[in-house]
Write a structure and sequence with these properties.
Among the domains are: 144 residues, Alpha-Beta Plaits (2-Layer Sandwich), CATH 3.30.70.2190; 106 residues, Uridine Diphospho-n-acetylenolpyruvylglucosamine Reductase, domain 2, CATH 3.30.43; 90 residues, Alpha-Beta Plaits. Helix 13 runs antiparallel to helix 15. A hairpin with a 4-residue loop joins strand 8 and strand 9. It contains 21 helices and 17 strands. The chain has an 8-stranded mixed beta sheet with strand order 1-14-11-13-12-16-17-15, with helices on both faces. It is an alpha+beta fold and 528 residues long. It binds flavin-adenine dinucleotide, D-malate (MLT) and zinc ion. The site of D-malate has 8 residues, from helix 17.
Length: 528
């Protein structure tokens, strides 16, 4: 067993926080928006012929388009007779393709309100769209719903340097917002691999979890208020900046994670923590999933308040990244499991002492087989790249069936093993030339009990989909887990909510949906 580079930890600890977090994200949605690639995506309505257009919904006419042109600024109404709208119709996994003929790009909350008032009166269905990085098909239309793209609503409204409270338009890109905060010594309390494209409004609409939820908590806690436009055009002004407010129902919570089904989020007020001055990252190789759990228990005990991420990946995940990466593998030999541990603190000596002791103990107690600690900012960034580019690497095979689940930790990885066995029993081989299944991998936010089970395929295939669904969801239900830990329900899981929610809860949700959106125009065919 060998743990190298520990000596160099102090070098890393002297890096300033601002520098350590200036990562270049490799994921780019625009790469998926080239005409060549979008042409290959089958229409959702053809892939799922059981879904029918809701005949109660209106059809967009030229009079509607003229009306939108009269209320929006020039260039804000895109129609398919003059523009290529495929980038708005196809999702980031190239799995779903809608048929929107009109895309609206409002610049103000008032413009969104006018759009919604008209759509409500005319019963025209809409899909709010942020960065279109969602992984459940929620951000693109199914039929001819109008896309409301928030990309031009991208201004920071205010930032209070004392409290750390940021108020910003929904269309602000997460990475740009975080850069704004970094210049002021603060950090956005959410980070994820798609940060270069996703919007903070989209993050709130999906209640995104990301890489540091274990440190900064859920958006249900950090979002202090929001402004939203209801389905009928009414603006709900709840942009509060208070940490404590017990006056009445907390309506903003309804919008967090509502995936565009209740209204359009136009601005967010969010509590941002101070950016840590000292960041360390270690990448460890382990033999078994039991050892991964032991390393986590020990990290909570020994690193406690400086622990900021605990991500795990199996051998197959890292091998998929290695197929396409020019980076040298972090560890020379292959291991069954890998863990990325990040600490964020304010005192270099203190953090270094804690981390070194933690890693030494892991070695001495044979919990890890090997490990490496980033020496400098470049190494730190590279180690994160091995984790963050797993989704992108898997997508290169052709398509991915993605399951994003919460399971009690002891059984978390069993789902990956059982999936391989389940496919094998059905006669499906993995990774052979004649098989459509390229790989079955598991990785995720172990610190949050969140597994990403991914089945990479050469192309989306109904036989494989039917083998996996509802089998995966039944598996989860038996363990009282959640079929969506962070990506949401969208189109992909709308028929499966009952595997995680009691009928009484679903009934309340349906009633709430009717109150918020009586005409059913907000992101139809999704969620429930
Ligand atoms: P979109 O994809 O545009 O929309 C997502 C949903 O929100 C849709 O239903 C849409 O209608 C709705 N919506 C968007 N904006 C608004 C608005 N202003 N008002 C109302 N509804 C709106 N997710 C995680 O949780 N954790 C991760 O670690 C993570 N990592 C990812 C890594 C990669 C490489 C990729 C591609 C995706 C990842 N995701 C992750 C999924 C995705 O990035 C998040 O769900 C993100 O929050 C979506 O933001 P968006 O702006 O792209 O929203
Ligand atoms: C992640 O954790 O990398 C994201 O949730 C995206 C994904 O799983 O594909
Ligand atoms: Zn995730």
């Amino acid at each position: 067993m060998r743990l190298f580079s520990l000596r160099a930890a102090s070098t890393l600890c002297r890096q300033s926080a601002q520098h350590t977090f200036q990562f270049t994200r490799q994921f780019s949605c625009t790469a998926l928006r080239t005409a060549g690639q979008t042409k290959q995506v089958v229409l959702t309505s053809e892939m799922y012929p059981d879904i029918h257009r809701d005949s109660r919904l209106g059809n967009v006419t030229s009079a509607d388009v003229d009306h939108f042109k009269s209320i929006l600024q020039p260039g804000s109404v895109l129609t398919d007779d003059t523009e290529d709208l495929s980038g708005f119709n196809v999702d980031s996994m190239r799995k779903y393709r809608g048929q929107a003929r009109v895309v609206l790009k409002p610049r103000t909350t008032d413009e969104v309100a006018q759009i919604m008032k008209h759509c409500h009166e005319r019963r025209l269905a809409v899909v709010p769209q942020g960065g279109n990085t969602g992984l459940v098909g929620g951000s693109v239309p199914v039929f001819d719903e109008i896309v409301i793209s928030l990309g031009l609503m991208n201004k920071i409204r205010s930032f209070d340097n004392v409290s750390g409270i940021l108020v910003a338009d929904a269309g602000c890109i997460l990475e740009a917002t975080d850069n704004f905060l970094a210049e002021r010594g603060y950090i956005f309390p959410l980070d994820l691999g798609a940060k270069g494209s996703c919007h903070i409004g989209g993050n709130v609409a999906t209640n995104a979890g990301g890489l540091r939820l274990l440190r900064y908590g859920s958006l249900h806690g950090s979002v202090l208020g929001l402004e939203a436009v209801m389905a009928n055009g009414t603006v709900v002004n709840g942009l509060g900046k208070l940490r404590k407010d017990n006056t009445g129902y907390d309506v903003k919570q309804m919008f967090i994670g509502s995936e565009g089904t209740l209204g359009v989020i136009t601005a967010v007020s969010i509590l941002c923590p101070r950016r840590s001055k000292v960041v360390n990252v270690a990448f460890l190789g382990l033999e078994s999933y039991e050892q991964v759990q032991s390393a986590f228990v020990k990290a909570k005990a020994d690193l406690s308040e400086i622990l900021s991420a605990f991500e795990f990946m199996d051998r197959e995940s890292i091998n998929e990244v290695a197929k396409y990466s020019e980076l040298r593998r972090p560890l020379d030999e292959q291991h069954n499991f890998y863990v990325l541990v990040e600490t964020s603190g304010s005192n270099p000596e203190h953090d270094e002492e804690k981390l070194n002791k933690y890693l030494e103990d892991l070695m001495e107690s044979d919990i890890i087989e090997d490990g490496v600690l980033a020496n400098d900012e470049t190494q730190l960034k590279n180690l994160w790249t091995w984790r963050e580019t797993i989704p992108e690497s898997l997508g290169k095979a052709g398509g991915v069936y993605k399951y994003d689940v919460s399971i009690p930790l002891p059984e978390l990885y069993t789902l990956v093993e059982d999936t391989r066995t389940h496919l094998a029993k059905a006669g499906i081989s993995i990774g052979t030339e004649d098989s459509v299944v390229v790989d079955v991998v598991g990785y995720g936010h172990l610190g949050d009990g969140n597994l990403h089970l991914n089945v990479a395929v050469k192309n989306y295939d109904k036989h494989i989909e039917h083998l996996l669904e509802p089998w995966v969801y039944e598996w989860i239900e038996k363990r009282h887990g959640s079929i969506s830990a962070e990506h949401g329900l969208g189109f992909a899981k709308k028929n499966y909510i009952q595997y995680s929610k009691d009928p009484s809860m679903i009934s309340v949700m349906k009633n709430l949906k009717t109150v918020f959106d009586p005409n059913g125009i907000m992101n139809p065919y999704k969620y429930i």
